[in-house]
């Protein structure tokens, strides 16, 4: 390897080392940076989207964009995607705020984790039943699977005719590389305490016993999904199971099947909410870009290797075990 290439590699290594140390230091120093940015201590600010004619209360729009999964906060190359814990906090805050007359969830997601979807669902139920909030859902371009799961308990669901929704069901996936390993002469040795300890392992074929166990888990989560829709949409179980075979629907098809209440966009949803609760200010919670995130974004621009480094971090940090998901797989 040439001297110039060695020097370049050393320079890159030094920059990465300094960047990691710098990010760790700023994260520790400014872990409570939001308190400097917002006297309320929240991770977001409130912005008026549309001024109302009546005073005293407000309508809050909460945006859910991206896959519903709890990836945690922070990280050297954190992006501005969906942040699960913050979204849960936003729902809870709006629910407990006596000046909030109604909440609109603007949903644009293919779905996500079963656990995360259930956590959002519980927060929405609490806002409705314990805090008496009127809750509407405005579906964006996609509100499929887990996106519909969290929408089901809303007082009103509004979708564009072109929205992709439905995909009611559960999925769990794994890959099998045993044949590939065999082709390359790779032998995998597994020592386990019981026959099912390595269930869904990528290094062996799935047995009938494996499949039966996993199918029972899938069926349990699917039954829960059906129950959520039965209760939220006031439909019979037979009706729900007939249309809940995993297929997607357009907003118009979902309307015809009683999965949504109205066809329209976010502005239409706001108008409907105002006609019910009052013509109040419409506000939106905007997430802060904290100091650690700001420096991370600056580092991304400096390195101009955002996609490669972010992908590497995601691969290294992602838990590889198969998980249950309410998600639409294209």
Describe the structure.
- One of its GO terms (molecular function) is serine-type peptidase activity.
- It holds the Pfam family Peptidase_S49.
- This is Protease IV.
- By secondary structure, the protein is α/β, with parallel strands linked by helices.
- The chain has two domains: 44-166 and 247-288, 2-enoyl-CoA Hydratase, Chain A, domain 1, CATH 3.90.226.10; 168-244, peptide peptidase (sppa) fold, CATH 3.40.1750.
- It has twelve helices and eleven strands.
- The chain has helices at residues 3-29, 34-37, 84-96, 114-129, 146-151, 178-183, 208-233, 237-243, 251-256, 266-277, 291-303, 306-317; strands at residues 44-50, 58-65, 100-109, 111-113, 134-144, 156-159, 164-166, 248-250, 262-263, 281-287, 325-327.
- The strands form two sheets. Strands 1, 2, 3, 5, 6, 7, 8, 9 and 10 form a nine-stranded mixed sheet that branches.
- Helix 1 runs antiparallel to helix 11.
């Amino acid at each position: 390897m040439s001297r110039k290439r060695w020097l370049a590699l050393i320079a890159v290594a030094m920059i990465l080392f300094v960047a990691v140390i710098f990010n760790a230091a700023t994260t520790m120093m400014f872990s409570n940076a939001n308190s400097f940015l917002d006297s309320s201590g929240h991770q977001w600010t409130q912005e008026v989207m549309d001024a109302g004619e009546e005073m005293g209360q407000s309508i809050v729009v909460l945006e859910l964009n991206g896959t519903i999964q709890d990836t945690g906060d922070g990280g050297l190359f954190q992006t501005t995607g969906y942040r699960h814990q913050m979204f849960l906090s936003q729902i809870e805050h709006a629910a407990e705020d006596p000046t909030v007359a109604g909440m609109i969830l603007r949903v644009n997601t293919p779905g996500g984790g079963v656990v995360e979807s259930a956590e959002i669902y519980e927060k929405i139920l609490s806002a409705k039943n314990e805090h008496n909030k009127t809750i509407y859902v405005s579906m964006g371009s996609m509100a499929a699977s887990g996106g519909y799961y969290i929408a089901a308990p809303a007082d009103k669901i509004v979708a564009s005719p072109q929205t992709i929704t439905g995909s009611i069901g559960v999925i769990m996936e794994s890959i099998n590389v045993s044949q590939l390993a065999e082709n390359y002469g790779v032998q995998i040795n597994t020592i386990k305490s019981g026959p099912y300890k390595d269930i869904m392992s990528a290094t062996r074929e799935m047995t009938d016993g494996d499949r039966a166990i996993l199918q029972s888990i899938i069926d349990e989560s699917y039954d829960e999904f059906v129950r959520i829709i039965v209760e939220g949409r006031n439909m019979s179980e037979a009706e729900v199971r007939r249309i809940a075979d995993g297929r997607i629907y357009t907003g118009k098809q979902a309307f015809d099947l009683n999965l949504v209440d109205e066809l329209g966009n976010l502005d239409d949803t706001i108008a409907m909410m105002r006609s019910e609760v009052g013509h109040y200010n419409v506000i939106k919670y905007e997430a802060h870009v904290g100091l650690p995130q700001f420096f991370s974004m600056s580092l991304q621009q400096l390195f101009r290797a955002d996609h490669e480094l972010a992908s590497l971090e995601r691969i290294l940090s992602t838990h590889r075990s198969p998980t249950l998901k309410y998600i639409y797989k294209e």
